[in-house]
Structure prediction request, 124 residues.
Amino acid sequence: QVRLVESGEGTVQAGGSLRLSCTPSPLTYRSSCGGWFRQVPGKEREGVASLDTEGSADYADSVKGRFAISKDNAANTLYLQMNNLKPEDTAMYYCAADSPWSWCTVGAGTPYYWGRGTQVTVSS
Prediction:
């Protein structure tokens, strides 16, 4: 059974930074595409960033220039570095994964494997 476990939950003031981490098992991000999504209660889930197996990233327009997705293949961990956070970034953040043949780009389709989410709260 595939599991994705997020960490990095926190509350920060506007302008601050947080880094989220996601560790999957037994699949690896070396051979899978990874991504981060977020959702606010009552709103649709939004794709934030994605990373393919070669390290090429895509971002939602709302986070470009502020967020960075990366991975450490040796640690089999996906990261989301979030800088200059805004109150509108407050949401539950979910990591995701799928094979490169099924999903690999935020905004194009839905990945198959999901974490349980980690809460990010940005105060004004």
In short: The mean pLDDT is 96. The chain is about 0% helix and 50% strand. The longest strand covers residues 18-25.
